[in-house]
């Protein structure tokens, strides 16, 4: 395999751009890198090629090393990738994650790199329009996880385009981890199975009342009403989600049982629910707010009522904020921790934990399905939201799939009940789901 690098018009201790970037890698380049100055590095016969097309792209890479700089250059088109579809760059990301290890350059190497690229490349260019402000700038919009700031951050991610979500998520319009009964199951079958698993864990019965917080496009609300005859209320901070859900509820003739409100869950005044489901909301709550969050959900339940919490978790129980790319482009203000911390907080809210389940592998399969949909509908997705935003989603979903596959993140369902003072929990001796 050839690893020759070409240099164009550089001398006197200076490096060509491709060589300068390659020199920062501990083990060399695992792919072909070409740059706007005509230079190239890495194996000429590599299956993937990265083309750094502009000086702005180089400035992005140098001023924000790591995933943020790469994302900025990639989203703007200043950095192009050949050999992989932008809707599903999973295999490329897997290669990069396994083989790209950076080293600290020596003073002479650092000087050569600076001479090669120029001091002007060390000034950060304006970020792409898809990027949310930095954390310190977001503080100007209110305290973290205040109602106003949460509404803005949720809107940043979910109020993209309902049509775009239809193309990527498929007919179920479900943007949470599915449950695959078999590896061959379709995404739609797996999303139905997920909702039904939640319903069975909650032991939903006709005539009961369900509160679904962070309800998205109303998938759980509609499933509970349609399949179990439950009177279900869902709330979401996304106006576009609420409007879509209301229309679908009317189309399915579920208006007498199902309701979705554009509302912060903290503004739900009703109580006495037989069950509460929280599917994909805890990631947006903030770890410090877990005590108030689970206490609020507990107070919405009747005695012996059940809570099902479904959320992305870490494989450890430390509070850890998400990476810069995810924080700026996907889930601003998002935080993750382990299932142990979540179970602890649920127990501290005086709820009895009855069962927990890790669905990590299922989320990897779910994300693979979403990426397939994005690839299949790429042109229409680009027409709907623009190529930059479509690139963000391909990068985010493929990267998340890889993280689930590598056990860097997990997905846990935790089932709890509001046990009475005399120990009455409403559960049979063995699970029925």
Automatic annotation (TrEMBL):
CDD domains: AdoMet_MTases. The keyword Transferase applies. Keywords: Lipid metabolism, Methyltransferase, S-adenosyl-L-methionine, Transferase. One of its GO terms (biological process) is methylation. InterPro entries: CFA/CMAS (IPR050723), CMAS (IPR003333), SAM-dependent_MTases_sf (IPR029063). GO terms for molecular function: methyltransferase activity. Pfam families: CMAS. Belongs to the CFA/CMAS family. This is Class I SAM-dependent methyltransferase. It comes from Nocardioides bigeumensis.
